[in-house]
Amino acid sequence: MSNYSFLLAGFGGQGILFTGKVIAYAGMLDGKEVSWLPSYGPEMRGGTANCSVTVSDEPIGSPLVVKPAVLVALNLPSLDKFEASVEAGGKVIIDSSIIDRKLNRADVEAHYIPATKLASDNNLKGLANMIVLGKLLKLTGFVDDQTFKEALKKCVPPKKEALLESNLRAIEIGFSY
After folding, report:
1. Judging by beta carbons within 10 Å of its beta carbon (0-12, 13-18, 19+), is residue 24 exposed, middle or buried?
2. Whole-model pTM over 0.85
3. Phi, psi at residue 80, to the nearest 5°?
4. Residue 169's domain is classified under what CATH number?
């Protein structure tokens, strides 16, 4: 039995909801039960955004992830707000380019990845979310690589197909980090 509960959080415009959508779609392609619940402030871009995603072998009781196994924090307000909610033994992935503090907990795994800087250094501006997603895939293995790539292809709209290659590159950078 595998059950993955993810909480992704950051500023609007960082690709939080898209990242969650790719995770959910990958789970769906893998034949799992999935839920994807976006939440964002009224100000959208620049405001706060978070997304609850569950991928499970069993039916999902609620789409709301209250105690995530994995928290992705792409900004400090998100880390401050959700750090305490991560289940003991869970994982926290932090964009250390933006967040300059360490976790206040010792009962969870902290993974610091300078995603925004890596994106900038590799001419992938705006793809820090995909770098973090690569790291998440490496840490959890919630689906295999092929299923994941298929999901990404399905989630990138045809009019933005040119971005698929750079998204895959960003995921590879995060996976290898």
Report:
1. buried
2. yes
3. -60, -40
4. 3.40.920.10
